[in-house]
């Protein structure tokens, strides 16, 4: 979704840029971001983000209620890169809107960068940076001009705005394009410029809502190089929503959200390890008959499926099963054209917890060489 629609009467800089459905009283822009005074010392909290029992409901059609977020608990450590992975409509943007104090939670608590989203929303908004799903850059203005306007909205003095703009452009690798109109920049450059803009006021936590949606793989990789550099060099805390599996793999921890609920949380490795079994896929001369044969070979608790992608099943140590399955199939006169065993992917994790796939591409096993029809292929990744 796009974050909630705005309210022009309120002068809070973040609200003016993003909009909000429930607006908190405004306060003057803090001296900490103006560069004119010494910043107030605020002790660093243990967690950059801490959420308990977060609920956000909207009035739905014909008097119904849409429960966008249904009781989320999570903690994100300082300096952590955390992914919120889920399909369209899962509640990712709504959660970000609440965590950035742009929408008021229906129930629950959240503390972001040391401030409570309900009781100190203006402080939350000052301490976070946001990258929205849809570009808010002015294509006719140069990179520098876009940054300058944003910096001034945040109350930075002209001088400080200039120096911060130079710094963030440097970090984004865009110094040589600072005088280019935004309309002439590539999609990846624009995204990096938007990230740079979100960093102008030195936020403690950066929220990125679907940061690489619409970008080609090369631009996506560039954006991620930039985000990794931010994390490694500046210790930024990054909260990323995405429905791209490979994007979530870039993060230290992932929460999988589905229909407003977190269904699994952990490091990518731990989430996949918890699934355990490898996926074995066989392409044969007769997949329906092959399925019956395979079912007779594997333990009875193993589900064996046959569809347009071939015969598939989940077993521990998948590659060790392939020769046995091939031998059994050959005994029944069924030729095996291809065989593959792959460790669990994040999509398998998603499927395990929701019964649905996030990835629409099919798993294609590598064809076996004609001379060795049962050659085993072990993959290190792949999709369902
Ligand atoms: N302002 C709103 N009013 C009513 N319903 C809303 C509003 N914002 C979001 N919703 C509903 O809440 C649910 C969660 O939406 P949300 O945008 O948070 O999901 P998402 O995971 O970010 O999806 P996407 O990736 O498509 O943006 C959806 O059913 C959506 O239609």
TrEMBL record:
Cell compartments where the protein resides: Cell membrane
Record's keyword annotation contains Transport: yes
Gene Ontology molecular function: any one: ATP binding
Top-level taxonomic group: Bacteria
One Pfam family linked to the record: ABC_tran
Xref: PROSITE patterns: ABC_TRANSPORTER_1, ABC_TRANSPORTER_2
Segments forming domain ABC transporter: 49-284
Chief location: membrane
Region Disordered, annotated ranges: 357-384
Keyword set, alphabetical order: Antibiotic resistance, ATP-binding, Cell membrane, Membrane, Nucleotide-binding, Translocase, Transport
SMART domains, per the entry: AAA (SM00382)
Membrane topology designation: Peripheral membrane protein
Family, similarity comment: Belongs to the ABC transporter superfamily. Drug exporter-1 (DrugE1) (TC 3.A.1.105) family.
Protein name: ATP-binding cassette domain-containing protein
Organism: Streptomyces flavochromogenes
Higher taxonomy: Bacteria, Bacillati, Actinomycetota, Actinomycetes, Kitasatosporales
């Amino acid at each position: 979704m796009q974050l909630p629609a705005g309210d022009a009467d309120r002068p809070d800089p973040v609200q003016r840029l993003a909009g909000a459905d429930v607006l908190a009283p405004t306060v003057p822009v803090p001296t900490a971001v103006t560069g004119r005074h010494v910043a107030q010392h605020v002790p660093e909290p243990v967690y950059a983000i801490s959420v308990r029992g977060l609920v956000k409901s909207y009035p739905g059609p014909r008097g119904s209620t849409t429960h966008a977020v249904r009781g989320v608990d999570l903690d994100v450590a300082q300096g952590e890169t955390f992914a919120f992975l889920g399909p369209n409509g899962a509640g990712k943007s709504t959660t970000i809107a609440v965590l950035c104090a742009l929408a008021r939670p229906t129930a629950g608590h959240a503390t972001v960068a040391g401030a409570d989203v309900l009781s100190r929303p203006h402080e939350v908004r000052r301490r976070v940076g946001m990258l929205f799903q849809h570009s808010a850059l002015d294509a006719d203005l140069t990179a520098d001009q876009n940054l300058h306007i944003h910096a001034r909205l945040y109350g930075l003095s002209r001088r400080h705005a200039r120096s911060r703009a130079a710094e963030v452009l440097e970090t984004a690798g865009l110094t040589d394009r600072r005088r280019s109109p935004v309309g002439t920049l590539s999609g990846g450059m624009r995204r990096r410029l938007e990230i740079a803009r979100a960093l102008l006021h030195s936020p403690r936590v950066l929220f990125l809502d679907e940061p690489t949606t619409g970008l080609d793989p090369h631009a996506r990789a560039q954006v991620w190089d930039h985000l990794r550099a931010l994390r490694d060099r500046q210790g930024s805390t990054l909260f990323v929503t995405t429905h791209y599996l490979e994007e979530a793999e870039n993060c230290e921890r992932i929460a999988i959200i589905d229909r407003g609920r977190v269904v699994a949380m952990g490091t990518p490795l731990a989430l996949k390890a918890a699934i355990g079994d490898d996926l074995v896929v066989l392409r044969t001369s007769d997949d329906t008959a092959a399925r019956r044969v395979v079912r007779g070979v594997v333990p009875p608790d193993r589900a064996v499926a046959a569809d347009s992608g071939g015969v598939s099943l989940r077993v521990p140590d998948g590659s060790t099963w392939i020769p046995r399955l091939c031998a059994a199939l050959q005994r029944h006169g069924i030729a095996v054209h291809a065989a593959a065993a792959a460790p669990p992917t994040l999509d398998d994790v998603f499927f395990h917890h929701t019964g649905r796939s996030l990835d629409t591409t099919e798993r294609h096993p590598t064809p076996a060489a004609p001379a060795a029809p049962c050659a085993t292929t072990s993959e290190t990744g792949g999709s369902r």
